[in-house]
Recover the amino acids of this structure.
């Protein structure tokens, strides 16, 4: 009997060490799969908001995604409803559309039509107005707004500022 | 007991141990009568003197698994490009990837230690005469193929960090394909895929290292996995007894090996990585000291004392000579070398000679070292020529 309890103990000891080793290995494996620190550090894009012209669409890139930047003209701002205005990012007294330029329906990139001042998605005909809100189905909601932080005349994409958090809390963006 | 006598005749090398096992099992059986059936214990025929030397096969299998797992994670970040390979290893994997250093250390330590275990595994087999009788010749041959495949795997992997040692070792080895005074420069270019070793070369060795050679090794391992493990069942025994007696010892020895292995990985990995290989490739400057990793030193030393053509012939033969051991050994005895007359001295002489060659391979080939190198190389050739002769006149045990 003594022999067997000893064998049992050794077996359990081996099992316990192996379990610790397995958990440690899995942790290392998981961490190896994580995005690199340099990749994460590259996840911030700073835009100089003073260079954009009113009513002209510009496409920037943030984390590999297109970012639509459209500085609103005063006429554009006047046509917006109060709810649509909440989508506009105010840098000083200038209003910008700053949206992730990906259709919320199935991920295509809509084109801006400057004459009608709206966006048309080539894939399924979804349409957005110049505040990025959806005006024609099938998209379920307006363009998503990337996390941003206003820093004087500059805008840092990837960082959450109070203006962005307010939009998120109000359900303007996901 | 009758059954175990039959096993003795199948495996002379183990007979001493088999009898002891049976004695052990009988006493074991008496004290634990109710614990398990006597059949299971009686038919168990593994040596009770099972020790590290007999566990090398499973230890190698574990090492291969470690190489495979660590290799998969290295593959996630390694870039087979002559401009980025060096940094992807030495910067990205070693500093940026979390636990990247762990995979690299496991990979290089396992590669190096694996060779040590493989050599022990091979020499024990030669000592015990386990390469003949009962269809074991094919087992031996698959083993020597594994040695060659493992060497190729090791060499191709050595190219990948694209450091100075990778480049110049690769240069020397690929130049061997010129065949000395045959001047087969076209063949060398074909192997390299370029006039110099460049992108095409790195890419094809990367391909060999991660696809073709591992595939060949896995195939050979399936062939090589000893029928020993299944022949226990043939004797009427069941796996439970086998598991308690054999596996428990096997697992213990593997655990001890792993403790040693991970000690090396965490605290003493330096031996498996050459300092010169932490310099980025410079195709116009050969480092002052060029030598292979320790496991290739003996065959590398065989190249040095002879004129180029003779050296190449000796080197070429040395790479495949172990394959022919079952054919060169003309004696019918498949027992320990200690019971085999002259073969005993042959075995120890070969082992010592190869160790001497290994040490000389790292020393500069000048003065005394040159002379000793020549003698050791000649002894190596003479031993292999003598093998059929001394075994032919061996008395049957």
């Amino acid at each position: 009997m003594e022999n067997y309890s000893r064998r049992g103990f050794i077996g359990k000891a081996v099992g316990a060490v192996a379990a610790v080793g397995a958990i440690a290995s899995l942790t290392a494996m998981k961490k190896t799969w994580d995005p690199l620190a340099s990749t994460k550090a590259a996840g911030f894009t700073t835009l100089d908001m003073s260079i954009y012209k009113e009513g002209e669409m510009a496409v920037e890139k943030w984390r590999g995604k297109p970012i639509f930047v459209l500085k609103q003209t005063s006429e554009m701002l006047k046509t917006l409803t109060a709810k649509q205005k909440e989508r506009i990012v105010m840098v000083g007294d200038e209003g910008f559309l700053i949206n992730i330029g990906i259709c919320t329906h199935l991920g295509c990139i809509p084109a801006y039509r400057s004459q009608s001042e709206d966006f048309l998605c080539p894939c399924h005909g979804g349409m957005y107005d110049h505040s990025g809100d959806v005006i024609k189905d099938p998209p379920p909601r307006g363009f998503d707004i990337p996390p941003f932080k206003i820093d004087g005349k500059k805008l840092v994409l990837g960082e959450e500022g109070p203006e962005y958090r307010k939009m998120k809390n109000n359900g303007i963006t996901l | 007991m009758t059954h175990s006598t039959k096993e003795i005749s199948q495996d002379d090398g183990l007979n001493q141990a088999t009898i002891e096992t049976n004695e052990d099992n009988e006493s074991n059986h008496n004290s634990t009568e109710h614990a398990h059936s006597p059949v299971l214990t009686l038919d168990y025929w593994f040596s009770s003197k099972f020790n590290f030397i007999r566990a090398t096969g499973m230890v190698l299998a574990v090492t291969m698994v470690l190489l495979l797992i660590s290799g998969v994670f290295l593959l996630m970040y390694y870039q087979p490009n002559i401009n980025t390979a060096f940094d992807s290893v030495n910067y990205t994997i070693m500093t940026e990837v979390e636990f990247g250093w762990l995979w690299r250390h496991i990979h290089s330590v396992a590669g190096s230690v694996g060779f040590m275990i493989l050599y022990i595994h091979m020499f024990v087999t030669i000592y015990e005469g386990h390469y003949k009788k009962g269809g074991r010749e094919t087992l031996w041959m698959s083993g020597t193929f594994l040695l060659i495949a493992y060497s190729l795997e090791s060499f191709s992997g050595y190219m990948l960090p694209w450091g100075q040692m990778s480049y110049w070792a690769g240069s020397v080895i690929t130049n061997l394909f010129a065949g000395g005074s045959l001047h087969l420069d076209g063949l060398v270019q074909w192997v390299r895929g370029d006039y110099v070793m460049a992108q095409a070369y790195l890419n094809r060795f990367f391909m060999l290292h991660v696809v073709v050679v591992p595939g060949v090794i896995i195939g050979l391992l399936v062939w090589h996995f000893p029928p020993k493990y299944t022949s226990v069942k043939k004797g009427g025994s069941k796996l439970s007894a086998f598991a308690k007696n054999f596996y428990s010892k096997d697992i213990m020895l593997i655990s001890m090996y792993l403790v040693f292995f991970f000690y090396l990985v965490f605290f003493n990995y330096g031996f498996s990585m050459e300092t010169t290989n932490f310099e980025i490739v410079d195709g116009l400057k050969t480092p002052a000291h060029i030598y292979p990793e320790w496991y290739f030193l003996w065959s590398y030393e065989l190249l040095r004392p002879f004129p180029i053509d003779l050296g190449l012939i000796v080197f070429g033969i040395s790479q495949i000579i172990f394959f022919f051991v079952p054919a060169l050994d003309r004696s019918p005895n498949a027992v320990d070398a200690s019971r085999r007359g002259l073969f005993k001295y042959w075995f120890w002489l070969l082992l010592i000679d190869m160790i001497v060659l290994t040490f000389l391979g790292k020393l500069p080939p000048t003065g005394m070292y040159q002379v000793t190198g020549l003698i050791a190389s000649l002894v190596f050739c003479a031993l292999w020529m003598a093998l059929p002769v001394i075994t032919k006149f061996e008395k049957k045990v």
About this structure: Residues 112 and 119 of chain A are 4 Å apart (CA to CA).
